[in-house]
Amino acid sequence: MHNSLELRDYTLRHADGTALLHEVNLSLRRGELLALVGRSGSGKTMITRALTGLTPPELHARGQLVLDGQRLDQAPPATLRAVRGARIGMLFQQPKRVLNPRLSIAAHLYEALGAFSPATRAAAARQIPELLAEAGLDDPRKVARMRPGQLSGGMAQRAMVAIALAGNPDYLLADEPTASLDSVLKHEVLELLRDRQRERGLGVLLITHDLSSVYSLADRIAVLEHGRIVEAGPATSLLAAPEHPETGRLLAAGLRGSASARSITGAPVLEARGLEARYRRGKRSTPALWPTTLTLHRGEVLGVVGRSGSGKSTFARVLAGLQAPSAGSIHRHLGDVSPTAVQLISQEPAASFDPRLTVRESLNAAVHRLPAARANELIEQSVARVGLDTALCDRRPRSCSGGQLQRLSIARALLAEPQVLICDESTSALDTVAQRHILDLLLRLRSELGLSLVVISHDMQVIGHVADTVAVFDSGRLIEHRPAAELFASPQHEQTRALLAARLPVNAGS
């Protein structure tokens, strides 16, 4: 088929015969937006590598990679290098990890435009502001002079869109491009991709684990499970009447984001009084958290929400005692207990496990003062409590999925016998099924152990699923703090209304 990028009967295997992709048939046509949806580990990212000829050399590939009728799987490396960027563009999940931190955005764009001579550089200089403006960036000339570290998450993703479009590709592969963005930015970036796709006639492959994010955008959807395409078809019909059980599971796992009323009767466990945090650079002091006062009660789930850079993570670190406040105080009503009574669970569990140690060795840090037999008993009890097979204890982190590592990070926190768990974006990188499992696990632990939870998220659907009360932050200020049902029904602040408006429907029937 011409005017398409295709995988035909494509299989990718390890040397031991284990299949990562199994007889995949996938066609991306110019001018359409195709969403590839699946859980973590289903093979989505490996498909992007296959489509760009970048599969790891130790893997064995069989099948065809075809670009506009031309076989690329048999093409020499020089042909593949010429295709990448010029014919097939890439948009990555975390642009700051991809971009060179020492180069300006303009330098990245010069390279993408092939501006290596004075003549081509002069022409490119005129294009750069236009590309950045097309990607929705205000003051593009200023952004061009900035380095990646100076950009917010949303700005960095838009700059990555400009770089991807600089080569004027026919196809754009977008691998989880909004996973780490707040709901407002997620909506804006997805709309930006849709607009550029329509204006330029691009074929866009949008890879995601979130069906709700593609409901109103995709022309077609393909569902991937264990390296196989198990269902594919027009977006509206597939979502309205899914045929494969995996599609049904992905839809059922979607969070509706509506809050229910639940009265809070427990005694206070944490009180923040005039809590303030400032970051100092030389003689300059920048407020990251303005004076904040609120109370967390026993058994309460406090949802903390706000856009990227609103101060949520700073609030979490100060509340957990990992960062000293610049002003104000935290009062703990936790009785005569260890300082580990408040535990913070981070957003990226893989980064919090030493890759050289087994899971058991990492978890043992919480109980290392106990006799070895008792420590192992408690470790396995904690791992089982979070719904995992204790055989995982003897694996290394790289052998565990993202969802398993997130559960293991919760198990490690439970070993410290906490009374308060602070979850800082603990589900943002997980697929919808794993996300739902983790959130339901947290609610079960709240009921079983009487924990108080602080769930920090940029996703109002997550907050609506778990929270009893909601604190909304904007630019470091607490702008609303109310019972969840009241806030969802009648948001008072403009920023809260924007966050709620950015929620996307889960399926055609929602």
Characterize the structure shown.
It is a single chain. The chain is α/β, with parallel strands linked by helices and 510 residues long. Among the domains are: 253-337 and 419-503, P-loop containing nucleotide triphosphate hydrolases (Rossmann fold), CATH 3.40.50.300; 354-418. It is 35% helix and 26% strand. The protein is built from 18 helices and 19 strands. The strands form 4 sheets. It has a 6-stranded mixed sheet, with helices on both faces. It has a 6-stranded mixed sheet with strand order 15-16-17-13-18-19, with helices on both faces. It has a 4-stranded antiparallel sheet with strand order 2-1-4-5, covered by helices on one side. Strand 18 (469-474) and strand 19 (477-483) form a beta hairpin. The longest helix has 18 residues, at 183-200. It is globular. Residues 505-510 have low confidence and may be disordered.
Task: Briefly summarize what is shown.
The protein is α/β, with parallel strands linked by helices and 510 residues long. The chain has helices spanning 44-51, 77-83, 95-98, 105-112, 118-134, 140-145, 153-166, 183-200, 235-240, 245-252, 312-319, 359-363, 372-385, 402-415, 432-449, 460-466, 484-489, 494-501, and strands at residues 4-13, 19-29, 33-38, 60-67, 70-71, 88-91, 171-175, 203-208, 220-225, 228-234, 268-281, 284-297, 301-306, 327-332, 342-345, 420-424, 452-457, 469-474, 477-483. Strand 7 (171-175), helix 8 and strand 8 (203-208) form a beta-alpha-beta unit.
